[in-house]
Design goal:
There is one protein chain. With 212 residues, the chain is of the alpha/beta class. The chain contains 4 helices and 15 strands. The chain has one domain (4-143, 173-183): Metallo-beta-lactamase, Chain A. 19% of the residues lie in helices and 31% in strands. A 7-stranded mixed sheet has the order 1-2-3-4-5-6-7. It has a 6-stranded mixed sheet with strand order 8-9-10-11-14-15. It has a two-stranded antiparallel ribbon with strand order 12-13. Strand 5, helix 2 and strand 6 (82-85) form a beta-alpha-beta unit.
């Protein structure tokens, strides 16, 4: 069953592999064309959900291996081209990779998918916005940002979250690369608590808005 289903879009969410990676199938109800967002290990259920859908693109949020382990299988079954930000494209050992950049709009049937570049977790991390649904990859989870490699990377990811994501409507659904979904308004409220506290200068890694 779809996670979201209305006259504008159908969204299927599948947990894949041992790291609870989320992969998403986004389908235009009018044309039955769609996209797959991320390509983790063991995508069999995802591909089953995609039966009968014309998959136009495989959209990658970032280049970490757990989001790419099923790419060859998905590409072989669907025949769809792959899209990724150019800063992360060197991790893909395949030909014919399409490059996305901040502000791009990918059109599939009547569905418009906006690309939002949010570096910090990786240099080429992107989120995909479909109407009131934000596919945030490992940039933003319910509870906090994605893992950062350094204090500078944490500040970068926070800046992108606050300036590019938290400006979206609060009723935007938050659909991350792992785990459960949430609402952007809840995340924003939790961040406000984090922002009011002092933090060590070397803070990075796994950060939680309410506990860090």
């Amino acid at each position: 069953m779809p996670l979201f289903y209305d006259k504008e879009v159908r969204i299927f969410k599948t947990s894949c592999g041992p790291l609870d990676n989320n992969a998403y199938l986004v389908v235009c109800p009018e044309t039955n064309e769609g996209v797959i967002i991320d390509a983790p290990m063991s995508p069999e259920q995802l591909l089953y959900e995609a039966t009968g859908t014309v998959v136009k693109y495989i959209l990658i949020t970032h280049n970490h291996r757990d989001h790419l382990a099923g790419l060859e299988e998905i590409k072989e079954v669907t025949g769809a081209p792959v899209q990724i930000h150019h800063e992360d494209a060197d991790a893909l050992d395949i030909s014919s990779v399409g490059l996305v950049t901040d502000g791009d709009t990918i059109v599939v049937g009547t569905v418009q998918i906006k690309v939002i570049h949010t570096p910090g977790h990786t240099a080429g991390s992107v989120c995909y916005l479909v109407g009131s649904h934000l596919f945030s990859g490992d940039t933003l989870f319910p509870g906090g940002p994605g893992r950062s490699r350094s204090p500078e990377a944490l500040q970068e990811i926070i800046r992108n979250i606050t300036e590019k994501l938290y400006t979206l409507p609060e009723n935007t659904s938050l659909l991350p690369g792992h785990g459960q979904d949430s609402m952007l308004g809840i995340s924003k409220e939790e961040y406000m608590i984090f922002a009011q506290k002092s933090h060590p200068a070397n803070l990075s890694g796994d950060v939680l808005w309410l506990e860090s």
